[in-house]
Write a structure and sequence with these properties.
Pfam families: Asn_synthase
GO biological process, one term: asparagine biosynthetic process
Distance between the termini: 31 Å
Radius of gyration: 19 Å
Strand content: 25-35%
InterPro entries: Asn_synthase, Rossmann-like_a/b/a_fold
CATH topology: Rossmann fold
GO molecular function: asparagine synthase (glutamine-hydrolyzing) activity
Protein name: Asparagine synthetase domain-containing protein
Structural class: alpha/beta
Oligomer: single chain
Mean pLDDT: 79
CATH superfamily: HUPs
Length: about 110
C-alpha cells in the first residue's frame, strides 16, 4: 500500500537518526467518486468517531452529519496541561447539528487493560 519516494529519506538532527517518508499510492479513484460511494450508507444511521478537533476527525464528523447520520463523537481528555485537543474538539462539537452527541472522558474513565 505504501511506497517510498526517492528523495524521502533524510537525516534528523545529529545525522544518526534517519527517517523514511512514505506516501500512499494513488488509487485512481477521484475523491468525488470515493466520497459519493460512502454517503448513502450514512443517512439515518448512528456513526461514532474519535474527535480530536484536528482536520481529519473534524472533516469526518461534518461529512457524516451532512449526509444525515447521527454523530456520536468521542474525545479523550488527556491530563497533560499542554494538550489542547479537548478544547478544539468542544469547539467543533458545538458546531455539529443538534442530533449529534459529544462525549468526553479521561483515562481514569476507561476500564483497566
Amino acid at each position: 500500500m505504501w511506497t517510498a519516494r526517492g528523495a524521502g529519506r533524510y537525516a534528523r538532527g545529529d545525522n544518526r537518526r534517519r527517517k523514511t517518508c512514505r506516501w500512499p499510492r494513488r488509487s485512481g479513484i477521484a475523491a468525488d467518486a470515493a466520497g459519493g460511494g460512502c454517503r448513502p450508507g450514512r443517512a439515518g444511521r448512528v456513526w461514532t468517531a474519535d474527535l480530536s478537533g484536528g482536520v481529519d476527525s473534524t472533516s469526518l464528523c461534518f461529512l457524516a452529519a451532512e449526509a444525515g447520520a447521527e454523530v456520536v463523537a468521542l474525545t479523550l481528555k488527556l491530563s497533560d496541561p499542554g494538550n489542547e485537543d479537548s478544547a478544539y474538539a468542544r469547539q467543533v462539537a458545538a458546531q455539529l447539528p443538534a442530533r449529534s452527541v459529544h462525549l468526553t472522558f479521561t483515562a481514569a474513565d476507561l476500564p483497566p487493560i
